[in-house]
Amino acid sequence: MAHLPCDDSSTVCVLHEPPQVKYTKLFVDGRFVDAVSGKTFETVDPRTGEVIIRVSEADKEDVDIAVKAAKTAFEEGPWPRLSGYERGRVLFRWADIIEKHADELAALETLDNGKPVELSRHSDIPSVLKLLRTIAGWADKIQGSTIKVDGPFHAYTVYEPIGVIGAIIPWNFPMLMFMAKAAPALAGGNTIVLKSAEQTPLTALFLAALSNEAGLPSGVLNVLSGFGPTAGAAISGHMDIGKVTFTGSTVVGRLILEAAAKSNLKIVTLELGGKSPLIVCDDADLDVAVELSHHALFFNQGQCCVAGSRIFVQESIYEEFLKRVTDKAKMRVVGDPFKGGVDQGPQVDQTQFDTIMDYINSGIQEGANLLTGGHRVGSRGYYIEPTIFADVQDVMKIAREEIFGPVMSVLKFKNLDDVIQRANDTLYGLAAGIITNNIDVANRLSRSIKAGTVWINCYLVVEPQVPFGGYKMSGIGREYGIQGILAYMQVKSIITPLKDSPWL
Known about the structure:
Number of strands: 24
Structural class: alpha/beta
Distance between the termini: 65 Å
Strand order of the largest sheet: 16-17-18-15-14-20-21
């Protein structure tokens, strides 16, 4: 890909232009193939609403073929029989090859998703590489334990791969979610059939092509583009898939859990929706609070499962906070994501655009105070102004449902008892944030809020070493950390008799 010189001669800048699309077919058993039906579907440029290209559309028959390839690779191929060290070497090579194609992958992500190319290149790509390399380093460190038992017996545990994994990923972080599923499954010796989101299929196919170059054996990784009711449903209910992992909406998560139960009771990991509270206490540094609140909500066009979409501000600083956070939002640059200096690109597609606009209209109708934004930007594409509502009440739709867009709801609270009760009054429990300079307040709130991740005086710090997942209807299980790898393993207990041992 071409480059432009930067002011800093030690840095290389991405040339901000859309890339050519190289891969549009299904990736099955180590090669690109057409869908059995021959069907294709459009993937759309969110900047304009125009078609980028057509990609192959997988359905049940394609899923069956991919699962058969994955099952054969697991039962007969070398991948599960390699040492963890050798599997790790392949994953490290994959990371190195991805890094060589970083500029092209970042531009492709922006073309299909709409996020600023600078975000794709300098946030998403480094996160993908860090995640893959971290997990590659763990591949030879998956180990059981020796257990002391009563009587003349020796007991120990071993971890074994589950087998064929089914993965269904969302459209908000396509590359990162791809790797969050594929890397730990592969590190543990499993094989995988992964379905990309129908809105953003392009980078998943590119990553699959690069896995071939890294030496991943045929059938170990299979990547399908298609729709949830067809390909996704076939994965969720397939009798030869031992586990399904899904990131997306709670509504779809229920369907996947039901399909898993009705088929072979396969293991399920779900990372679902959120309505995360961000609590700003009256002793907080307001400049810090405004910066964190802005980042927590507007990052990635607000299309983030852990977005701080309920900002609780203590009443004594409420008005000043509103003024500052509104001024900050008005400075946010919305525009073509391939242009430098753009903070916010378009939403991913027409459906998401319409959903967000409906929530904005709901906030107005229910009596929330619209401080800024609330309108589309331009006449083409799916751009929405950064939007802030004040005087939001807990019963309002914008305070209870996941919007998944650039819409901030600010609520006033009196004291800690008040905010704890209200922050927990939600179906979700994915994440929360606390901004305070009082360690006692930080400790009380962090232990009281029912959420899988709590950030204190920071936000959106997601590291591959740290477990991630939700309470309540935000999901089942954990990703990342060693827990995320062991989630793709079965633990086996082995007991043998001890004969003539000098001690027990």
